[in-house]
Amino acid sequence: MQDPSPARRIVGAVLSLVIAALPAGAQDLGAQDFPSGPLRMVIPFSEGGGSDVWARFHAPILSRHLPGQPPITVQNEPGGGGTRGSNAFATQAAPDGTTLLGTSGSSLFAWLLGDFRVRYDFADWTVLMASPTGGVVYVSDELGLSSWRDIDRLQDQRLVFASQGITSLDLVPMLAFRLLGFDAHYVFGYTGRGDGLEAMRHREVNIDYQTTSAYLRNVAPMVAAGEAVPLMTWGVVDAQGQVRRDPTFPDLPTLEELYEFRHGHPPSGPEYDAYRVFASAGFAAQKMLVLLGDTPAPIRDTWLEAIRAARTDPEYLDRAPEVLGAYQTLVGEEAEALARSVIRIDPGTRAFVLDLLASEYSVRLTE
């Protein structure tokens, strides 16, 4: 056989150096260590909500960048405000990389508040990816508003909200509605925001909120059809700690703006402090993709490589802004750092919220 040309020998040498420089697990893509499947992404909420939309968007793209391209099944396990599926993941999943959990603010809130149903600990998990998101509060067209500027029309109206539980992410709108002075009533027992959306579609309730992904997919068409009116967003917090308008919804006010529009001064006091803490904790790292903390490092690293590759996938770049909104997803150490910042709560704020839940809703979280 004829020896390769000098040019080919140079190219081959360069490729060998590039392959040798790749991280462990990327050279062979974890073919030996990475599980062949099946793979599951547990979502502790019902189908159709923001977490479900987020998971079903990511799953096929991640699959393409894993060794052997194994399919990833999204498994909905709703109940308990996000605690049922999270408990099952913590107590039943094996640390072999085949099962991941998509957390939400609801599962985080229950843990922060010491909910007796919680059998998991965020500190025991490895955060692979953290996706900030937003949320939009909207009302039924039957309430007679044409835009958020008509908020005073809600003053004497009875508002009904479908809730998956007072310790879930629904705590944020509940605190917000109190601040705004709404006559809000809650129907408990729903298993996810997707159920709240269906309740709105069937005119069973007249005020709701959805996280960005679910709002863009499911509520925006209702707004375009004149069936719903957007009211406000939770906003985003900048590096200086200031609340800014959500970049995905720049025409909608934050709660702070809506409060000042209605009352003539910015919100303050213990209720607002509690709202701000939980709004930040619930949305800055609203959706996290986690593995059990004792998953072997090569498997964890293969997942991280797949996530990083997915973020540059043409389909992700093309569809993510429309599906997920204009937010920056964090991966690896950045995601872990963000998670550490939101799994803490000031004891005074925690005590205030627990007292509020007990006195106003007869909810006591300790057995």
From TrEMBL:
Keywords associated with the record: Signal
Signal sequence extent: 1-26
Residues covered by region (Disordered): 68-89
Presence of keyword Signal: yes
InterPro entries (UniProt xref): BUG (IPR005064), Bug_dom1 (IPR042100)
Family designation: Belongs to the UPF0065 (bug) family.
Protein's UniProt name: Tricarboxylate transporter
Biological classification of the source: Bacteria, Pseudomonadati, Pseudomonadota, Alphaproteobacteria, Rhodobacterales
